[in-house]
């Protein structure tokens, strides 16, 4: 009875599910904590309602047990079992069309990509700029400017010299197969030790200083090397204003530089004083770009023949750092070659003279007045006298005292040149045979 009383007491409370328990030994399935089972059935009334009218006459009923109402749980709704059989899908016409288009696009894109790769690898279809395809290097004729430069470059050198003022950099050119080189005196002036030359192929060689003529601004070096290629000389007496020219050198230490221009003027007299030294030039004027470092390099005609030695430039500022403004001057090669040969052969350079001295300043109406005329000299023999005003020497116009010296020295001793002068208001022209000083 102890177990039955405990069970009855536990079921005296109405469960939250709403079912009432009748105190039997097997709890209904919907009572919390009770074992799950089928709905409770009793005797022959199992299929009738739980509300018995004769419950008191139930022979199995415990008279001491409390009455209980049992409400059977409602039958659970049937749950459909999942259908694992494959479903038959219907494909619409739109889907077919879309799939076909997508497949066509993919195939086209893939085909295009493969075709592009094949074309790129084979070079076909690549974009080409310009009107024609790229060709090989053009073989330029020897008489073209490029052909001239190619032929002359091996004969041009860059000169480096340690001087009292530091390292000087200039240019030069080979004038003989045994290694003689012409450059400017102002490149090697104050030389300490031997200079070094650098060829167009970047090889170098030591050079020996042979000699120079400061007033002519010409110096000669010697290279001890075989296989040298000398330049071809032209003649400065045969050039004309307007002729094309090339300048080759190392402007601002930029070796093997080539510039192009024309002859702007001839017989341009210049007197240049530098470091206590006065130099005289009857120069070839050119607009070819020449800068510091070009000094001593060759001025070439269109055939590649040397017609001058690049020497000085004129600038607006007059500063040492000034650059080219289209006014450059070269020593005529006829004069430079003559001076160089004299340096090599005798070490002395006699200067060409006319046998006169001039006043310190030019005449008011142009030209220079003769201060003295040497007895028996070229000028006196030609009929010139002191006081005459010389206007022109060999076609070069004279304005300053130094102009006469510069123009006369352009010519070799023994050369006969026309000289135009005025005397007492009258103009005269005479032929003067020049001579040489003692050297």
Structural key phrases:
439 residues, Thrombin, subunit H, Pdz3 Domain, 7 helices, elongated
Describe this protein's structure.
The protein is α+β, with helices and mostly antiparallel strands and 439 residues long. Among the domains are: 143-347, Thrombin, subunit H (Beta Barrel), CATH 2.40.10; 352-436, Roll (Pdz3 Domain). The chain is built from 7 helices and 20 strands. The chain has helices spanning 2-10, 93-122, 145-152, 185-188, 333-345, 378-382, 401-409, and strands at 156-163, 166-174, 180-183, 196-198, 204-213, 218-223, 244-249, 257-274, 277-286, 298-301, 306-313, 328-332, 352-353, 356-362, 368-373, 389-393, 396-397, 416-423, 426-433, 435-436. The chain has a 6-stranded antiparallel beta barrel with strand order 1-2-3-6-5-4. The chain has a 6-stranded antiparallel beta barrel with strand order 7-8-9-12-11-10. Strands 14, 15, 16, 17, 18 and 19 form a 6-stranded antiparallel β-sheet that branches. Residues 1-55 and 78-85 have low confidence and may be disordered.
In terms of topology, how is this protein built?
Elements: H1 2-10, H2 93-122, H3 145-152, E1 156-163, E2 166-174, E3 180-183, H4 185-188, E4 196-198, E5 204-213, E6 218-223, E7 244-249, E8 257-274, E9 277-286, E10 298-301, E11 306-313, E12 328-332, H5 333-345, E13 352-353, E14 356-362, E15 368-373, H6 378-382, E16 389-393, E17 396-397, H7 401-409, E18 416-423, E19 426-433, E20 435-436
Antiparallel strand pairs: 1-2, 1-4, 2-3, 3-6, 4-5, 5-6, 7-8, 7-10, 8-9, 9-12, 10-11, 11-12, 13-20, 14-15, 15-16, 16-17, 16-18, 18-19
């Amino acid at each position: 009875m102890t177990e039955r009383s405990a069970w009855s007491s536990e079921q005296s409370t109405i469960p939250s599910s709403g079912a009432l328990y009748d105190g039997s030994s097997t709890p209904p399935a919907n009572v919390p904590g009770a074992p799950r089972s089928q709905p409770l059935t009793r005797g022959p009334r199992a299929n009738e309602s739980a509300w018995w009218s004769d419950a008191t006459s139930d022979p199995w009923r415990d008279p001491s047990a409390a009455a209980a109402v049992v409400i059977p749980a409602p039958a659970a709704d049937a749950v459909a079992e999942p259908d694992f059989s494959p479903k038959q899908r219907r494909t619409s016409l739109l889907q077919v069309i879309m799939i076909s288009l997508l497949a066509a696009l993919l195939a086209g894109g893939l085909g295009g990509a493969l075709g592009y790769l094949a074309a790129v690898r084979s070079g076909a279809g690549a974009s080409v700029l310009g009107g024609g395809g790229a060709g090989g290097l053009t073989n330029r004729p020897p008489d073209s400017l490029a052909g001239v430069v190619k032929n002359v470059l091996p004969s041009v050198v860059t000169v480096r010299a340690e001087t009292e003022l530091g390292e000087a950099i200039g240019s030069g050119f080979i004038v003989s197969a045994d290694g003689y080189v012409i450059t400017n005196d102002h490149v090697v002036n104050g030389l300490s030790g031997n200079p070094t030359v650098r060829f167009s192929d970047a090889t170098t060689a030591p050079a020996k200083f042979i000699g120079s003529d400061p007033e002519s601004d010409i110096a000669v070096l010697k290279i001890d090397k075989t296989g040298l290629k000398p330049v071809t000389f032209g003649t400065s007496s045969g050039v004309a204003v307007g002729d094309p020219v090339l300048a080759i050198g190392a402007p601002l230490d930029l070796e093997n530089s080539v510039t192009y221009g024309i002859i702007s003027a001839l017989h341009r007299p210049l007197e240049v004083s530098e470091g206590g030294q006065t130099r005289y030039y009857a120069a070839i004027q050119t607009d070819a770009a020449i800068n510091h470092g070009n000094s001593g390099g060759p001025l070439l005609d269109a055939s590649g023949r040397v017609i001058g030695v690049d020497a000085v430039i004129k600038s607006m500022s007059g500063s040492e750092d000034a650059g080219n403004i289209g006014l450059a001057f070269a020593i005529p090669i006829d004069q430079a070659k003559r001076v160089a040969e004299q340096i090599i052969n005798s070490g002395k350079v006699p200067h060409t003279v006319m046998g006169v001295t001039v006043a310190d300043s030019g005449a008011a109406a142009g030209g220079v007045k003769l201060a003295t005329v040497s007895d028996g000299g070229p000028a006196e023999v030609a009929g010139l006298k002191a006081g005459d005003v010389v206007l022109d020497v060999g076609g070069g116009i004279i304005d300053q005292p130094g102009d006469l010296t510069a123009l006369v020295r352009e010519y070799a001793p023994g050369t006969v040149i026309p000289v135009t002068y005025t005397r007492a208001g009258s103009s005269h022209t005479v032929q003067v045979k020049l001579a040489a000083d003692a050297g």
